[in-house]
Amino acid sequence: MKKIIITGALGQIGSELTIRLREVYGKENVIATDIRQPEDSKVVTDGIFEILDVTDADHMKDLVEQYEVDTFIHLAALLSAVAEAKPQLAWDLNMGGLINALELSREYDLKFFTPSSIGAFGPQTPKDQTPQVTIQRPTTMYGVTKVSGELLGDYYFQKFGVDTRSVRFPGLISYDTLPGGGTTDYAVDIYYEALKNNAYTSFIDKGTYMDMMYMPDAVDLIIQLMEAPSDQLVNRNAYNVSAMSIAPEDVEKAIQKHLPDFKLSYDVDPVRQGIAESWPNAIDTTAAQEEWGFSPKYDLEKMTEDMLKQLKNKGI
Ligand code: AKB
């Protein structure tokens, strides 16, 4: 990767990935884009930033030409809970943006990354040690767009030789930018509320296991996957990745080691609970380990310690 364009750069992944890419590849080689332009974000003030609506193919093409990019990192998408509330918008944005980005990657021979998700699985998928290649019949619009994205990635690779790469991200936990409307968001909110109120009411029920990962591991793995030799990649679109399989009460116990009086209660949201129950408990990440050396550094204990420290530094 030498010159990289990123869409959705102000989102949960984008805001940390953009900063890291600028450190690794140089500020002049990272073109951050998003549909809005807040003046107080480092993503906007600390490097190249362009407003881009990913459904506007002409503008996207102008930027690819203007900056002569060689890599496309496409992050702009609606997350699972919002997509369930606005399924048509989710299809238009998630698929419209993706096909525009893939077409440009074909036309200009760009290396391409877009995230898939554990949401690409559904109730018929094996729940534990979910294999890399298995049944994918998701029951959410988010999942439908993610499976379609995986298939399109394979299609553009096989048909046109575009160097497409992807991972199925689990819930991502970060202290920098809040996620916008996902099913796994409880695992981020809980840390903020633990510090603010010493209590949290979870919208996901006790005993509901989902895969999760700390954002520093997610950012590292994107760079690692993108730098891996192409001929090593068999399961390109998309690799199972996860750092931990946890339920709300596991996070409760981990927080209580630092804040002994922290209290967790439950007020379950049927929509997000239904989505969570349609997803795996714990996915098998062997293919990612074997094909490009995936190896996350943070488990629940290490992540909890760092989350609480970083949030306190932010004045939460
Ligand atoms: C969501 O909950 O929608 C996302 C995801 C797992 O893709 N965090």
Automatic annotation (TrEMBL):
Q: Give an example GO molecular function.
A: L-threonine 3-dehydrogenase activity
Entry superkingdom:
Bacteria
Q: Which SUPFAM superfamilies match?
A: NAD(P)-binding Rossmann-fold domains
Domain named NAD-dependent epimerase/dehydratase: residues = 4-241
Query: One Pfam family for this entry, by name?
Result: Epimerase
* InterPro entries named among the record's database cross-references: Epimerase_deHydtase (IPR001509), NAD(P)-bd_dom_sf (IPR036291), NAD(P)_epim/dehydratase (IPR051225)
Q: Which Gene3D superfamilies match?
A: NAD(P)-binding Rossmann-like Domain
For this chain's UniProt record, which GO biological process terms are given? L-threonine catabolic process
- What protein family does this chain belong to? Belongs to the NAD(P)-dependent epimerase/dehydratase family.
**Protein's recorded name:** Nucleoside-diphosphate-sugar epimerase
Organism for this UniProt entry? Alkalibacterium pelagium
The record lists the lineage as: Bacteria, Bacillati, Bacillota, Bacilli, Lactobacillales
